[in-house]
Amino acid sequence: MTIAAGTRLGPYEIVSQLGAGGMGEVYRAKDPRLGREVAIKVLPSSFSQDTDRLKRFEQEARAAGVLNHPNITAVHDIGSVDGSPYIVTELLEGETLRARLSGGSLAPRKATDYAVQIAKGLAAAHEKGIVHRDLKPENLFLTNDGRVKILDFGLAKLTQSESTPHEGTNLPTAGTEPGVVMGTLGYMSPEQVKGKPADQRSDLFSFGAILYEMLSGSRAFHRDSAAETMSAILREEPPDLSATNRNIQPGLERIVRHCLEKNPEERFYSARDVAFDLEALSSASSSGAIAVAAPGGVRRPSWALFAGAVVATALAVALWAFWQVKKAENRPPPSFRQLTFRRGQIVSARFAPDGQTVMYSAAWDGKPPEIFVGRPESPESRPFGLVGASVLAISKSGDMAVSLNRVGIAAFRASGTLGQLSVAGGAPREVLKEVEWADWAPDGKSFAIVRAVPGKLRLEYPVGKVLYETSGWISHPRVSPDGSRVAFLDHPTPGDDGGSPLLVDQTGRVTKLSDPFASIQGLAWSASGDVWFTAAEIGGNRSLYATTSSARVRARVRIPGSLTLQDISRDGRFLVARDTNRNEITALAPGETKERDLTWLDWSLPAAISSDGKLVLFSEAGEGGGPGYSVYIRKTDGSPAVRLGEGNAQDLSPNGEWALSIIHSASDPQLVAYPTGAGEPKIFTKENLSVYAASWMPDGRSIVLTASEPGRGPRLYVRDFESGKPRAISPEGYVGVGVVAPDGKWIVATGPDRRRYLYPIAGGEPTAIPGLERQDAVDQRSPDGRFVFVRRRGDVPARVYRLDLATGKRELWRTLIPSDAAGISNISTNPTPDGTAYVYNGTRTLSDLYLVEGMR
Question: How far apart are CA 387 and CA 404, in angstroms?
Answer without folding.
Answer: 9
